[in-house]
Amino acid sequence: MNKEKIACDVKRWAKIIRNDPQGDLYPNFLFFMTFYPEFRNLCYYRMGKFGGFFNVFCRQMDTLFLATPEIGPGLFIQHGFSTIVAAKSIGANCWINQQVTIGYSNETDCPTLEDNVTVCAGAKVIGKATVGENSKIGANAVVVKDVPPNVTVVGIPARIVRRDGIRRDEPL
Ligand SMILES: CC(C)(COP(=O)(O)OP(=O)(O)OC[C@H]1O[C@@H](n2cnc3c(N)ncnc32)[C@H](O)[C@@H]1OP(=O)(O)O)[C@@H](O)C(=O)NCCC(=O)NCCS
Predict the structure, then answer these.
(1) Where are the domains of the chain?
(2) Most CB within 10 Å of its CB: which of 37, 76, 107, 151?
(3) 3-state class (DSSP) for residue 89
(4) CATH of domain 68-172
(5) Are residues 111 and 86 in contact, defined by beta-carbon separation less than 8 angstroms?
(6) In this model, does residue 10 exceed pLDDT 80?
(7) What is the pLDDT of residue 1?
């Protein structure tokens, strides 16, 4: 059970969903547990083996898989429909949308996401790629190489269209 990370998750979700920068644990925790199945997946993941027990009474989403050994605080999952997160590690305050796959290319190679990374709807991040902090993977992009920090990438194969907020067109 990781109470500190759950408290950070609640704060971040409260800020995004309820526009509540204070994000007090109790009203918000109950609100998200009741109305946001994606939040339940994250919470049960944080609770480890106890999560499976609570899932009997209050079900998590069947289509959202968090198979990552280390997920930093403040992960926001906007929609968990058909989303698989099998990374080596995920940093703090990342954001993941629906129909995303973050996963292995073979038995050992899987991605690392640093802090504050956003993975938009339908994007795939595959194999031993590291996504640098503050970077954004555009909708439906396919990333198989390292992504530097502070960029936006789009397309298949993914290319850089923004670096430090400035429009670019660079290969990865
Ligand atoms: C990538 C994204 C974040 C936009 O980033 P941005 O820095 O504002 O990019 P711009 O809109 O300035 O576009 C830059 C270039 O990338 C292209 N582009 C933007 N998003 C793209 C995408 N997802 N796939 C392919 N190309 C894309 C634009 O057409 C533009 O190319 P051009 O100059 O040749 O016409 C956004 O397009 C995106 O994918 N958002 C997804 C949001 C999401 O998941 N929503 C679901 C909510 S339920």
Answers:
(1) 1-62, 68-172
(2) 151
(3) strand
(4) 2.160.10.10
(5) no
(6) yes
(7) 65
Identify the sign of the CA torsion 12, 16, 21, 27. negative
Q: Is 140 in the pocket of ligand 1 (CB under 6 A)?
A: yes
Q: Is 152 in the pocket of ligand 1 (CB under 6 A)?
A: yes
Strand-by-strand arrangement of the 112-113 sheet? 70-71, 89-90, 112-113, 130-131
Query: Residue type at 106?
Result: N
pLDDT band at 168 (very low <50, low <70, confident <90, very high): very high
Residues 6+ apart with CB under 8 A from 127: 104, 105, 106, 109, 110, 111, 144
pLDDT at 167 over 80: yes
What's the one-letter identity of residue 114? E
- For the chain, how far is it from start to end, CA to CA, in angstroms? 38
Give the Å distance between the CA of 168 and the centre of ligand 1: 12
- Look up residue 138 and give its two tokens: 């555009």
Residue whose tokens read 């709807």 = 121
For the record, the structure tokens of 85 come out as: 């997160």
Residues making up the chain, counted from first to last: 172
Which amino acid, residue 103? Answer: G
Q: Tell me, using a 6 A CB cutoff, whether residue 150 lines ligand 1.
A: no
